[in-house]
Design a protein that fits this description.
single chain, mainly alpha, 3-stranded mixed beta sheet
């Protein structure tokens, strides 16, 4: 892009999903409903895990952290979009945009790392059941979560500092419902070769690393399950992984689908629409996936609402 009218701009315009005014109330209602379900569902998971002593185990400790991160992840983008629709404005300030991008990348990274940590937890539980509580000690669980936070924050900080060094043309329109890293780099007027290089290299390293860890954990889990003689034993072992495997599949398939489709079609609108799956739909579905097939969570939730 030719560097013209380059300046330190004060605002961006978030175009969202549709310029048709008659569709805005529908979009507002849909996203408000999904956001409230996400927050309420994940808060229930947090409340269930914290209030039931039977759920004070490594698996549910990581699940509670995932629920907290999912609330933050969705809250980074959806409230601003709802506010813009309600006030009929598309403006987001430069500072708010950078802040939103920073937190979005941080919480996306946390989701990624926590899913890998939860896969390792299932690997230890199924492949080394007798040593599970010794290996997955409270100290190690806390350390794994802390390292996930540190890595995610540093990863986000690198990208934020690089975007802060970019120059943008005046009246920059972002064809998305939030300040997405890739979109911002594409819209910069200055040279973005180094930014693109860092972005894709870091994505391959920090997204690919946990994914490799998940594949490795499940390859060992499958081998261990195949060694179980009884069908009931196999079902019981696999059922402890089913919820996590569903969430992993949904998160990674959606995330990869967004970037592969945007790279193939170069359509920002289709990329924004596909982004809804992993930014809004996945955090909304996680509480349902983990509670519907989990008797411990269902029992704790029934106790909270007074059914039992």
């Amino acid at each position: 892009m030719e560097p013209r009218n380059i300046t330190r701009i004060s605002k961006f315009l978030l175009l969202g999903f549709s310029v048709r005014p008659e569709l805005q109330p529908l979009i507002f209602g849909l996203f408000l409903s999904m956001y409230l379900i996400t927050v309420f569902g994940n808060l229930l998971i947090l409340l269930a895990v914290s209030s039931d002593s039977h759920l004070h185990t490594p698996m549910y400790f990581f699940l509670a952290n995932l629920s907290f991160v999912d609330i933050c992840f969705t809250s980074t983008t959806v409230p601003k979009m709802l506010w813009n629709i309600q006030t009929q404005t598309k403006v987001i300030t430069y500072e708010d945009c950078i802040t939103q991008m920073n937190f979005f990348v941080t919480f996306a990274g946390m989701d990624d790392f926590l899913l890998a940590v939860m896969a390792y937890d299932r690997f230890v539980a199924i492949c080394h059941p007798l040593h599970y509580m010794v290996i997955m000690s409270p100290w190690l669980c806390g350390l794994l979560v802390l390292l996930s936070w540190i890595t995610s924050v540093l990863y986000s900080l690198v990208h934020t500092l690089m975007v802060l060094g970019l120059s943008f043309c005046t009246e920059v329109e972002i064809p998305h419902f939030f300040c997405e890293l890739n979109q911002m780099i594409q819209l910069a007027c200055s040279d973005t070769f180094l930014d693109n290089l860092v972005m894709y290299f870091a994505a391959m390293l920090l997204a690919g690393g946990p994914l490799v860890g998940i594949f490795y954990s499940y390859s060992k889990i499958v081998s261990s399950i195949r060694g179980i003689s009884s069908a009931q034993g196999k079902y019981k072992a696999f059922s402890t992984c089913a919820s996590h495997l569903s969430v992993v599949s949904l998160f990674y398939c959606a995330s990869l689908g967004v970037y592969l489709s945007s790279a193939a079609t170069q359509s920002s609108q289709s990329s924004a629409t596909a982004s809804v799956i992993y930014t809004v739909v996945t955090p909304m579905l996680n509480p349902f996936i983990y509670s519907l097939r989990n008797r411990d969570i269902k029992r704790a939730l029934k106790r909270i609402v007074g059914i039992q």
